[in-house]
């Protein structure tokens, strides 16, 4: 807890920053080319491997093979590496919800799967109910399904995930007006954004929304509102036991975003470099340390989140993680944003 005391002390002692007006082009390029597009490339590749693994397993008369489970985990973790991006092609045609419809408080996924099983025949998954098109539905088929008998649904779901991943990547990078251009050349005619400040706000909205998602949905939801009222089956991906791995992937993605995809600790890129160029070395050092300590705390949760939330021994670690993620979000919104050119309060989940 010593880190938290230092963090909050430094946080409140740092001088308030006025909003800078000179968001540099290289900062937006760092974030897009160093983090966003590589994340989508990884997502496209891993969903392709998943589709191949499901096809191979089903051809061999099975579904829940070790190869399928491994490919499924890698693909979902790759999605966690990209879901801090909340603007652009991922929002077209409701793709973000089709990729992962969750939370599913009304059990719509199970009902949609029952409907598909009753109809039979290879379904047109892309036109099916939103909840049955992505990872949560495929997870149920792999971990709770009917084996090879569910392949007629599992194959098109895996193929649909790969198709959407490919479409998102293509729309970011190819054509006369790729979404990349809308961000790195605002006001160029690609539409959507007209200044680098608007581009940066759109990108940082996703980073803060991802941290809020970790807090509100991935940690607090299964932890319960009160001590002793944990709801382990409210954890994300509890069937596949990927819940805590996905939290770690989310944190890694936001950290990579902040650092602009820097590959070495001594390399300064992205928001870290922007702060240092602006003379905000103390804040940059604090952010680097905050990301490191928060991720180290997440690593201390050595079991699936569905198991950790009902283990009293893990409660202090989870409480600390909640506090640290909350502090990270506050630092980005209230300190980092104004210091590099945008006002606080940018959060896609506010008011939801």
TrEMBL record:
Signal peptide (UniProt feature, chain positions): 1-21
Keywords, comma-separated and alphabetical: Signal
Main location group: other
Location(s) in or outside the cell: Cell envelope
Highest taxon above the source species: Bacteria
Family matches, as Pfam families: Peptidase_M75
Domain Imelysin-like: 37-331
GO cellular component terms given for this protein: cell envelope
Record protein name field: Imelysin-like domain-containing protein
Originating species: Thalassobaculum litoreum DSM 18839
């Amino acid at each position: 807890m010593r880190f938290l005391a230092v963090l909050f002390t430094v946080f409140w002692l740092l001088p308030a920053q006025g909003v800078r007006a000179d968001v540099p082009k290289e900062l937006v390029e760092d974030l897009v080319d160093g983090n966003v597009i590589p994340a989508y490339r990884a997502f496209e590749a891993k969903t392709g491997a998943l589709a191949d693994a499901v096809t191979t397993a089903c051809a061999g008369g099975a579904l829940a093979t070790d190869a399928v489970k491994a490919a499924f985990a890698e693909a979902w973790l790759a999605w966690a590496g990209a879901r801090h991006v909340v603007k652009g092609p991922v929002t077209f045609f409701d793709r973000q919800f089709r990729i992962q419809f969750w939370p599913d408080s009304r059990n719509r996924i199970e009902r949609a799967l029952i409907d598909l099983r009753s109809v039979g025949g290879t379904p047109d998954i892309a036109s099916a109910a939103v909840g049955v098109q992505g990872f949560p539905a495929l997870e149920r088929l792999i971990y709770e399904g009917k084996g090879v008998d569910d392949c007629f649904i599992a194959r098109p779901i895996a193929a649909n995930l790969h198709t959407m991943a490919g479409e998102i990547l293509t729309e970011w990078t190819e054509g006369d007006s790729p979404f990349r251009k809308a961000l790195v050349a605002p006001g160029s005619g690609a539409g959507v954004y007209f200044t680098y400040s608007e581009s940066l706000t759109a990108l940082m909205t996703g980073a803060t929304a991802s941290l809020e998602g970790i807090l509100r949905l991935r940690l607090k939801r299964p932890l319960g509102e009160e001590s002793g009222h944990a709801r382990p089956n409210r954890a994300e991906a509890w069937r596949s036991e990927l819940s805590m791995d996905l939290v770690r992937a989310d944190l890694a993605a936001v950290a990579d975003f902040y650092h602009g995809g820097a590959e070495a600790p001594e390399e300064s890129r992205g928001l870290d470099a922007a702060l240092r160029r602006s003379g905000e070395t103390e804040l940059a050092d604090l952010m680097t340390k905050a990301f490191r300590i928060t991720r180290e705390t997440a690593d201390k949760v050595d079991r699936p989140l569905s198991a950790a939330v009902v283990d009293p021994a893990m409660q202090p670690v989870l409480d600390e993680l909640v506090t640290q993620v909350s502090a990270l979000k506050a630092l980005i919104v209230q300190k980092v944003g104004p210091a590099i050119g945008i006002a606080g309060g940018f959060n896609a989940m506010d008011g939801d």
